[in-house]
Design a protein that fits this description.
Largest sheet: 7 strands, mixed
CATH topology: Rossmann fold
CATH architecture: 3-Layer(aba) Sandwich
Helix content: 25-40%
Radius of gyration: 19 Å
Number of helices: 8
Number of domains: 1
Distance between the termini: 69 Å
Order of helices and strands: HHHEEHEHEHEEHHEEE
Number of strands: 9
Structural class: alpha/beta
CATH class: Alpha Beta
Strand content: 15-25%
Shape: globular
Length: about 260
């Protein structure tokens, strides 16, 4: 029987690299399931991560978010950088930042948190995998804490961060049904739905984060291109960074000096 699903060259290469030719021949058995879920492997920058349907598949666009974070970290002349990766999912962002710090032989303290315990389980598996793949020193595990938390709700009150990074749900609820079937039918809605205007969860984080930032601390976010930054808490100064399509995609937020 002729296959009805037409694979892109990238999808074919992924299945051959992390699966088998047999998966290509039987691709129609999987409907429109993304190939990353079929193989339970996703690439993100230089990392190879485990994924399942409890976490979003990390996107290549989010690699730019990591680049923005690394640029800011490189400016910090500090012996130890304290970072929170809020809504960590698979751990792609936090582990990429930690990989940089390890490579630079710099100390870090990384909190990787998620409201979903299932997502945290994936992130923990990926920490072990990346640590082995990248040959991190044995003591690297002392730099990482995994925390189940609705945003910052369960963070110890005495913590303060140089950097809080978050790729939170930011799609307006009304647009969910307009997403590709490969997204809305397979990826976790908890990680997609951002409320009526798409920034409900982001605003909540910004309110909470006022008490968790160091004096010159920074929040870096990935956002929807329609997000109305002017409606966000005015305690912050916001810098918008556009993507390769000249659309609003990333925001840097710093507390205003009082």
């Amino acid at each position: 029987m002729k296959q009805s699903r037409i694979l892109t060259p990238r999808e074919k290469n992924h299945l051959l690299k992390y699966g088998s030719r047999d998966l290509i021949d039987k691709i129609d058995d999987y409907g429109e399931m993304p190939v990353e879920y079929i193989t339970e492997i996703a690439e993100f920058g230089d990392l190879v991560l485990r994924v399942n349907r409890d976490v979003l598949i990390p996107r290549v666009e989010t690699e730019r978010l990591v680049e923005i974070c690394l640029d800011e970290i490189s400016k910090l002349n500090l012996a130890k950088v304290i970072i929170a990766d809020v809504g960590t999912g698979s751990g792609a962002i936090g582990l990429s930042l930690l990989d940089y710090l390890v490579g630079q032989k710099r100390q870090g303290q990384l909190i990787m948190s998620d409201v979903s315990m299932k997502a945290l389980s994936v992130a923990k598996r990926n920490f072990k995998k990346v640590s082995k793949d990248r040959n991190w020193p044995d003591n690297t595990n002392k730099q990482v804490v995994f925390l189940q938390s609705d945003l910052l709700a369960n963070y110890p009150s005495n913590l303060s961060f140089h950097l809080i990074v978050a790729n939170l749900p930011y799609i307006p609820n009304k647009r969910i049904q307009k997403l590709d079937n490969s997204v809305k039918d397979y990826e976790p809605l908890l990680a997609l739905k951002g409320g009526a205007n798409g920034d409900q969860i982001i605003k909540k984080l910004l309110e909470q984060a006022k008490n968790y930032l160091k004096k010159d601390g920074l929040i870096i976010l990935e956002v929807d291109d329609d997000s109305n930054v002017l409606s966000w808490p005015d305690d912050y100064k916001y810098d918008i960074i556009k993507d390769q399509f000249n659309k609003q995609r990333f925001v840097k937020a710093r507390l205003r000096l009082k």
